[in-house]
Amino acid sequence: MYKKTMSAMLAAGLVLSVGVASAQEPVQKPNAQAASAFDNKIIKKISSDNMYNTIAKLSAQPREAGTEGEWIGVQYIKSQFEQLGYETELQPFTFNEVVRGTGSLTVNGATLDPYVFSGSYSAEVTADIVHVGLAKSGEVPDEVRGKIALIERGEITFVEKIQNVLDKGAVGVIMYNNSGTSNRFGQANAGQNIPAVAITRDQGLELVNQLKGGPVEATIKVEGSGFVEKTSYNVIAKMKPHKNKDTNQVVMIGAHHDSVAGGPGANDDASGVSAVLELARVMANMPTDTELRFVTFGAEEKGLLGSYHYAGSLSEEDADRIVAHFQMDMVGARDAGGDHPAGGLIMYTIDGKKNLVTDLGSAAGARTAADTVIPYGQLGRSDHQPFHELGIPAALFIHSPLESTYHTPDDTLDKIDKNKLQEAAEIVGASVYQIARPDTPALEHARVAPGPVDYDFNDRPPGA
Q1: Least trusted range by pLDDT, from 95-99, 161-165, 321-325, 368-372
Q2: Neighbouring-strand partners of residue 399
Q3: How far apart are CA 121 and CA 461, in angstroms?
Q4: Which residues contact 354 (CB under 8 A, 6 or more apart)?
Q5: For residues 122, 126, 132 and 138, what is the CA-based torsion angle, rounded to 10 degrees?
Q6: Residue range(s) defining the domain that contains residue 32
Q7: Does the pLDDT value for residue 55 go beyond 50?
Q8: Residue 419 to residues 215, 369, 397: CA-CA distances in angstroms?
Q9: Chain mean pLDDT for the chain
């Protein structure tokens, strides 16, 4: 689909407008004065004070998905979009919250101290133990029926191992580690109605030896564990283009509004949401030939659940209309980015390849306050991933390496840098406007057409 989209944009002259350098074209840096005239409609209106105030409101309480804190944040975000005149909706979706309870394990009367699998079924069972090795499909013996399966960790996932012995009729799972001295591991899936606990490697090998001498009986007891269904939300805001200039294209700007449990999430990702809301404010009354779609996603911290739900809800026709997705995650931390240029801002793509979003973003960085050609890298783990999988050009804008307060209760407002907020919003805002402004289908004939820039791959992991 990306090739299809790019072909359509080439036909419209849009790719020429963004200045994608080719082997046949000389690479040039845009004229700063001319570029300023092009971008000032956006960047002069962006206020880091507004973004800072938004972060203050959102980070007043943790916003873990499915909690009252998230709901408070969602209502605030929705109200801001509505006040700006956007067509706004909440998109609810449910997910299973994993709960790890408590448990006990006795073997031939001896008490062990097991680790209860996250999401394990809560039950008490007593039965003989059968060692089933790695519990790979096709290798689980029939004799495990009605018994407790002793499984070695490794090679396949926890849930696959559980399912393989469950399918053979096992009534309980004891899994021992394949290395080290820890017993803190294990995850079950909803619907796997069998209690599962973990023990250390030494404990597991001791049970293997005991089984050589005859039957070994065990009792597993798990309480308060399983899955709780919760609801999270995506907040979607749309602004239709001028009806006489509509190109039938959509450009998306996103962030995730949830935080980790117990964390105020000032940078992760109230900062991204603040930039989304600020760009929505700046662009609310601008003439465009492209639909603007701003989305804040829920349950990113639970595994990109909100963005996958949203992407999955798109019709093929609607997905084909989306020409670019800009994702902002953690764009305001004072202590992120190390000594890299532009505060360490980088654009990550899923496949490590350039696309329309990175072309626009790097050129915009050279024209705006950052005055830096922003590099690109390769990374998933954020809400740009579902859009890439639909063939939509997408990139994550983030400061890397991450700050030490990432995913902690210390991710607070006082760690936010207004300059970083301003730069990131300017770059994304200038990039989006270059697509959405009414003259982009013929921008090569416009009075101001920013030239191409050359930008490099930076193999910079977030923790580097």
Answers
A1: 368-372
A2: 345
A3: 37
A4: 376, 455
A5: -70
A6: 2-97+229-445
A7: yes
A8: 68, 9, 15
A9: 89
